[in-house]
Amino acid sequence: MSGGRRASWSFLTGAVLVSLFAIAALVSVIWTPHDVSGMNISARMKAPGGDYLLGTDHFGRDMLSMIMAGAQTSLAVAIIAVGIGMAAGVPLGLAAAANRGWLDELIMRANDLAFAFPALVIAILITAVFGPSAVNAIIAIGIFNIPVFARLTRGAALSLWTREFILAARVAGKGAVRISAEHILPNIANLLIVQGTIQFSLGVLAEAGLSYVGLGAQPPTPSWGRMLADSQTLVGLAPHLALVPGMAIILSVLGLNLLGDGLRDMLDPKLRVVRT
């Protein structure tokens, strides 16, 4: 099997899974099978089937509707957090690579400091001051993403600053900022896209984890992590309470990882090797 076929399989599978959750999130904005916040105590913990395709929770709420609406929260938090990481991290990495010396050292040491505090710890610090919410979860995950993109950008940019076409641009009188924008950034865009996809999947996991411990989206906003937290004492009576949100998290993260692997194989020329 060729590397291209493997990449296509990975990319297509990931794209299909991610598209399903993205479509569910978009559709839930205007329609869900049942009212997301509507409670039907007479139908509580109902097994999947009939009017409730994925069953109901301990309040009688439709699980399918909550999964669809929860996709909004997970995807929105992940997208915005990754956007924050890229918007701040990429310029910092470019600046560190273009200005070796005290600025590079300052940025890298700040990155090391940020890496010392996982997203959960940052979220705890933020919520201790401002209270738990989806916005604070976005800030916490976004802060954690900044050093990831800064370090990746710096490393990739450093390998380009000694190349002939960069030296030619410097001889032509272009400054560091212009070279970074016109020559460095376009040549590392493929790496940033792949890393963004990977961080996107980690963002979904981080949002679920923060919601699980009560630091993410707050009721009545649906969240896959909080659905898991609510099910932990009832899983023996109604296993679908944990299986449904758990599978949603697994499949969404799997889809994003497959999509990232496919993009990496498609965009990295070193991996375009055909095996006989």
Automatic annotation (TrEMBL):
This is Peptide ABC transporter permease. SUPFAM superfamilies: MetI-like (SSF161098). It comes from Roseibium aquae. It is found in: Cell membrane. Keywords: Cell membrane, Membrane, Transmembrane, Transmembrane helix, Transport. The chain crosses the membrane at residues 12-31, 75-98, 110-128, 237-260. It comes from the Bacteria. InterPro entries: BP-dependent_transpt_permease, MetI-like, MetI-like_sf. GO terms for biological process: transmembrane transport. It is a multi-pass membrane protein. GO terms for cellular component: plasma membrane. Belongs to the binding-protein-dependent transport system permease family. Its main location: membrane. Residues 71-260 form the ABC transmembrane type-1 domain. The keyword Transport applies.
